Amino acid sequence: xxxxxxxxxxxxxxxxxxxxxxxxxxxxxxxxxxxxxxxxxxxxxxxxxxxxxxxxxxxxxxxxxxxxxxxxxxxx
Length: 76
Hints:
The protein has 76 residues and is an alpha+beta fold. It is 34% helix and 26% strand. It has 3 helices and 3 strands. It has helices at residues 2-9, 41-45, 50-62, and strands at residues 20-25, 29-35, 69-75. The protein has a 3-stranded mixed beta sheet with strand order 1-2-3. The longest helix is centred in the C-terminal third of the chain and has 13 residues, at 50-62. The mean pLDDT is 93.
């Protein structure tokens, strides 16, 4: 899943080397923390959050087979 997020985000940004995904796993949830360069935040979020919503939709669909709830957080 981490590789999927990186594969989606890196072509969108100007600084792909700054894209990092951290995984936090609990009993019943997995949280992926996506961090990008400060100047790339607008590109990852998109107008009215459309790009971020699309990324989350793909990630949630890919993880739907798991028993745990999946969350994607975007930060600088």
